[in-house]
Amino acid sequence: MSEDNDSERVAFWKKNFLGDTYRGLDAAAEEEDPSHPQDFTKEGLDAKEVVLCLSKSIVSLVSSVDGKPLFGCTGTVVNHVGSETWILTSATLVRKPGTDHDAYKADEVKIEVLLDNKRSINGRLAMCNLQYNIAVVTIELQFGLPIVALNDPPEYYSILGRPVVAVGRDSKSQVLLVRHGNMIRKRSKLDCSELLLCTCPVSKTFIGGLVMDFERRIIGISFFGEDTTPVMPIEIVSRCLKHFKKFRTLKLPCLCIRGHAVHSLELRSLEILCLNFPELSCGIGIVVDQISGESPENFGGIEAGDIICSIDGVVLHSLAQLTAMLLDKFFAMKSEKTMVLQAVMRRPRDNSKFVAMLNIWENSSVECSNSFSNRWPLL
């Protein structure tokens, strides 16, 4: 591309995409988000082109309690149901300050939804789940707001390193915000074992917004971290929405096991593991880090350090895949509150192989109510 064409491309984005914000970006927002929002590198311009088609579906949400501002973040239009339009966002929008596991109820919090055309609409909290840090806010039906389809990516797709884009909408200027980076194969420091990580340099404004690749495949929704950006996989988010649409609640599985994917191991650890179990060399399996203090028989004798290779014949490559599979099984259940699954295991401690029967509860049961609840601290 010639220098003249590059200049024309930059001029186009300044005039048509960024509007007057290029001349007068809110100083407070700029101070909070020092990652140079006016990115006119080739990668930055490509990222803007990727998200432009979604701009009408990306909104800003601002919550307040008793007239005092609580939080502002990003949301995405994901459905039109009856007389309502659904907006997917982060439960951080309504979480009570200074608490890990408590959020305001719908009648305790006021939510303002700011659209792409700078119009403001009152929203209502319809669903909040602190385990996976997602929420649904509803507004009066707006057919003019396109729905973003939340489809599963191809198998193994989300665990591969690839360029991605994080999307947000600023609550002050109400302009679309874009950051680009890469998916990375590391473990999040947060409690939630299913989280992915990317290097998009986001601010807290991006919380609840989409992370997508340059082919416009949705990877998940973003949170906020110091060095990397945690991403809740779309496989989990979409199934939570499916549960809520059918049951008006979430039937969440409680496995009471924390772990991490084999592919996220350091190379040296992976090498030692594969010497004894060559079949794991392609990165399949989940390493068990921690087991709840419930009765050991509920976990079929599984110990910390064991590797879950498959569940009911399905080979595992990520925690997100396992959680999505369990959500599907609970969606299909009727009145049952528990299920028993067959897990094929490997035990590096003595190089043994065995089969374990796992008892899975619905998360609303007494056994799981206080077990392994995820926390989402804002650093």
UniProtKB/TrEMBL annotation:
InterPro entries associated with the record: PDZ_sf (IPR036034), Peptidase_S1_PA (IPR009003)
Gene3D superfamilies: 2.30.42.10, 2.40.10.120
Gene source species: Setaria viridis
Protein name (Swiss-Prot/TrEMBL): PDZ domain-containing protein
Pfam families: Trypsin_2
